[in-house]
Amino acid sequence: MTFRMVKTIYLKEMLDMFRDRRSLISMIVVPVLAVPSLFAVVHYFTQNLGKKAQNESARVGISASVSQPGLTGALKSVGFELVPQTDARAAVENKSVAASLDLTRAADGTGQIVIYVDKTREASSIAAERLTAFLERLKLEQVKSSLRGLGVSERVLNPFTVKSTNVAPAKKMAGFILGSVLGYAVLLLMFTGGMYPAIDMTAGEKERHTMETLLASPASREEIVLGKVLATTTASFLTAMLTIASILISIQRAGLGQGGGEFERLVSRAAPDASTVVLVLLTLLPTALFAASVMIAIALFARGFKEAQSLLTPVVMAVVVPAVVGMLPGIELNVGLALIPVFNVSQLIKEIVLGEFSHLAFLAAFLSNVFYALVAFWFSVRIFKTESVLFRS
Fold it and tell me: How far apart are CA 280 and CA 184, in angstroms?
């Protein structure tokens, strides 16, 4: 195997790849345009739907049994729009109001205010939370008033306070979310970005009948496969870098924008620094080589482009499961878990962004992914040497 021959094959495949429209779309257009567009759409709908739910939550139904001047006046003073209802429950069910109040009797005979809520609707849940908080404050004021009438100190109602303090800084919480999303999105798009180049270099060449010309060249089978795998690895790795850049730019813009919320601004400040990005890319490098080798090997079995696409689509979808598991909280990467492909990368990226990764786990994940990549490359070479697979008809 000579470096010059591998370089020639690699450059030839890279040239073909940048001429292929489908490869360019999956490799460059999707991460550059789709990721910011997704962020923009989610941001737009989150802002608008949140405002709509807040506005709708002010419309509350109230039955005649609860309509007392003192209560209704207090509810109106805090911004509720009261709508008289004969059937408080039905009013919520048919969505004419966000929530409604009714007065019944508890088992001990005391008055019981019932809040009807539809928890499948955000506006209804918000209204119920606001009503509950308001009624609790009103009840407390009435109790305090009774105690003052009896000459009892109000402090008997609150002998001590309870305060819960989160030792994780808000920036760390935002980093956890960012790390989880980053690992999942990068892995999924990295496999997608390498899929079409892998198909074009294998099944595509079979359809164009250029595979025979390539095999007739002085290059050995190992050199041909290595050139194709390196080109596909470049496509996957380029997609990963563009995806990371798109995500970081998108959250930075969301945090600096006028419509950005407090959490979005916090996530923008939790964006990883240069050293963190380098570690993430280093983690992804052997995975890109593994993905390229696997997709080249599988695509070789296909007779044409459509068949290769049907064979590789389940492979890309299979990445989703371990990538999503890596997003789950409460999992810490150890040496054993670091041996699980794809999952180890998703979990490791999350821990790198948090700044809490284990160097031993990092080394185990990196070396295991290098091993998997070498095995997958060996397998793709074996398949490329099998004439019955290479010239299927």
Answer: 13
